[in-house]
Amino acid sequence: MYLKKIEAQGFKSFANKMVLEFNPGIMGIVGPNGSGKSNVADAVRWVLGEQSAKSLRGNNMQDVIFAGTENRKPQGYAYVGLTIDNSDHMLAIDFDEVTISRRVYRSGESEYLINGGACRLKDIYELFYDTGVGKEGYSIIGQGQIDRILSGKPEERRELFDEAAGIVKFKKRRQVAAKK
Ligand code: ATP
Ligand code: MG
């Protein structure tokens, strides 16, 4: 499994359609301060279901929508699509390529899609449990996160090990079953 493509439109500084294609291996994104490097990482976390505006460096959820510039009108919606090569079928879905997408309008209306079909946020979370990829996964290590992991509470650190051990989905199912 590897990240193949990120598409964004109207998301943060990406007013125009932005497409980044990746190959297996290492790739770096470089650019001057304020050019949008961190916005790329925010786009990935957002499409994976990040619900906290603060962790996306905004005040409210609409802050991810391109706010306009002096000579450019604001956008009405933000869109991000993430395409993953799933030819090794690490994701439990019967497709060799999986595209997760999310769109949010200024009105607050929003939608999630898996391969073009509308889905619930829960479906996105479930698809990525135990893969390390989800919004809480360790595949995205933000600034200051190493510090938080080292100095965090044991329970928080435990969540990381649970994900790596592949037992999150069982724990979640047990929680749901216990509530019934
Ligand atoms: P650094 O090297 O300083 O970390 P960076 O390349 O990571 O910089 P980002 O933080 O990704 O830069 O981008 C910040 C830019 O994104 C700012 O110029 C900010 O104005 C712009 N930006 C953020 N949200 C929006 C939005 N909703 N609409 C328009 N522009 C936005
Ligand atoms: Mg940055």
UniProtKB/TrEMBL annotation:
<protein>
    <recommendedName>
        <fullName>Chromosome partition protein Smc</fullName>
    </recommendedName>
</protein>
<comment type="subunit">
    <text>Homodimer.</text>
</comment>
<feature type="binding site">
    <location>
        <begin position="32"/>
        <end position="39"/>
    </location>
    <ligand>
        <name>ATP</name>
    </ligand>
</feature>
<comment type="similarity">
    <text>Belongs to the SMC family.</text>
</comment>
<comment type="function">
    <text>Required for chromosome condensation and partitioning.</text>
</comment>
